[in-house]
Structures are given as structure tokens and as C-alpha cells.
TrEMBL record:
Organism of provenance: Streptomyces variabilis
Classification via InterPro entries: Aldolase_class_II_sugar_metab (IPR050197), Aldolase_II/adducin_N (IPR001303), Aldolase_II/adducin_N_sf (IPR036409)
Protein name as annotated: Aldolase
Keyword Ligase part of the UniProt annotation: no
Record Gene3D superfamilies: Class II aldolase/adducin N-terminal domain (3.40.225.10)
Region (Disordered) residue spans: 1-27
Keywords: Lyase, Metal-binding
Keyword Metal-binding applies: yes
């Protein structure tokens, strides 16, 4: 979520608020931050294009060293520029930029402090949010459940932007890389923005599949057993190209 973006000129080799060398409270080179910010903005725009959020709902972050770059509060993603980069340290102190960070900053920081996440994506995806109002755990409708670490839990409801919501979400994430948030949306994390985003998209898709199958009168969808999920998880570990 965000606020009006600036239009300042970039200095060569740096962006506004990002020094080209290391400074107090900032441990990443300016070029690395600039590249990560560009990827973050692209990911945030993708959540809108793919229908996972409306307007500036939801938020995205990525960790670069001990700095967390995060979408600002209330600024439409298509108005963010390289000069609008903003970041905080792991305690939430702003070390880059002047825009106000997302109201869900406590949630993002809690994930970084307690997991090995390098990127976090939070959305208000329609089907996932609908499922979060119906069950305490997404039924194992598809083997991609294993890609998130097992059955996807629903975090108990709490007001957005609060430490209580962060705590509830961490409990739902225990041993998982994604969860639903009651009457709210989704949260996934990964080793990078591409992986975190892919997990978000997969979670929304599984929620849509379960809702569709569950809507057929007189029938109930077949679900996978824990043994079947475990076998799928083993196979998924070797999926894709080596290296």
C-alpha cells in the first residue's frame, strides 16, 4: 500500500536515498538495492495484472542483506519509480527513502526474523480470501499442496497491521511457506520474489479448484492423503532444471 511517488533525478550509480557505498544502517551496495527495487515493483504490478489484488491492497517485500525493501503505503504500483525506493532494517527503522512503508510492515518483518525468507508476497486474492472464511485449513485438493510444505493453514483473524496479526500468521506458517489469513488474504515467502510470487499464484489456484469442485451438488471432491502429499513433496524436490 502506498503514497504519492517522487520524480527525483537519479545520480549515476545510485538512486535517491540509496548510497553507492555502505553506510550506517545499510549493508547492501546501491546497485544491488536498485535491482531488487526494480524487481519488487515489477512483482507488485504483476499482482494487480493477475487479479490477485485490487488497487494498492496487498504488499510485497524483498530482503537485501539486513535491509528490507517494501512497497509503500497507498501509492499505486504503476506510479512507483526507481527514485521511490524505500527500505527498513529488521527492527523496522527506515533507512532508505521518504515514503511511508506499508501498514503490514510488522507482518513482513516477523516473517524475515523467524524464517529464512528472502521475499514475501501478501495479496487479497479472491478465491483464497473466500476459502479463508470457510475452513481452518485448505483441503488437500492437489499435490502442489506439498510445494507449500503441507496442508495450508488459515491464520486466525486479527486487525491488519497489528502485532497480533503477525503472531497469528507466524503460527499458521510454522513448517510452511504459505498460509491463508482469515477474512483477509494470503501470505507466501520464498528464496526470491519469483518463488514467493509463484507460491502465491499456486495457492490462489488451489483455492479456486477446491471452491469449484465443492460447488457441485451432491458430490464432494476427492482429497489427497498425507502419504500421497509426502510422496509428491519428494518428487517436487527434484523438479526443474539442475543448477
Amino acid at each position: 500500500m502506498a503514497e504519492e511517488g517522487g520524480t527525483g533525478q537519479e545520480a549515476e550509480g545510485a538512486v535517491r536515498g540509496v548510497p553507492g557505498t555502505r553506510g550506517e544502517g545499510f549493508t547492501a551496495p546501491g546497485e544491488e538495492v536498485a535491482e531488487a527495487w526494480a524487481e519488487l515493483v515489477a512483482t507488485a504490478r504483476r499482482t494487480v495484472a493477475d487479479g490477485l489484488v485490487v488497487g494498492t491492497s496487498g504488499n510485497v517485500s524483498v530482503r537485501v542483506g539486513d535491509t528490507v525493501l517494501v512497497t509503500p503505503s497507498g501509492v499505486p504500483y504503476d506510479r512507483l519509480t526507481p527514485a521511490d525506493v524505500m527500505g527498513v532494517d529488521l527492527e523496522g527503522r527506515q533507512v532508505l527513502g521518504t515514503l511511508v512503508p506499508t501498514s503490514e510492515l510488522p507482518l513482513h518483518l516477523a516473517v524475515y526474523r523467524t524464517t529464512d525468507a528472502r521475499a514475501v508476497v501478501h495479496t487479497h486474492a479472491v478465491h483464497a480470501t473466500a476459502v479463508s472464511t470457510l475452513v481452518d485449513e485448505l483441503p488437500a485438493i492437489h499435490y502442489m499442496t506439498a510445494a507449500l510444505g503441507g496442508p495450508v493453514r488459515v491464520a486466525a483473524y486479527a486487525t491488519y497491521g497489528t502485532p497480533e496479526l503477525a503472531g497469528n500468521t507466524l503460527r499458521a506458517l510454522d513448517g510452511r511457506t504459505g498460509c491463508l489469513m482469515r477474512n483477509h488474504g494470503t501470505l507466501t515467502h520464498g528464496a526470491g520474489l519469483d518463488q514467493a510470487y509463484d507460491r502465491t499464484a499456486q495457492l490462489e489456484w488451489m483455492c479456486r479448484v477446491w471452491l469449484t469442485a465443492s460447488s457441485v451438488p451432491g458430490l464432494a471432491p476427492a482429497l489427497l492423503s498425507r502419504e500421497q502429499l509426502a510422496e509428491a513433496g519428494e518428487r517436487l524436490r527434484g523438479y526443474g532444471q539442475r543448477g
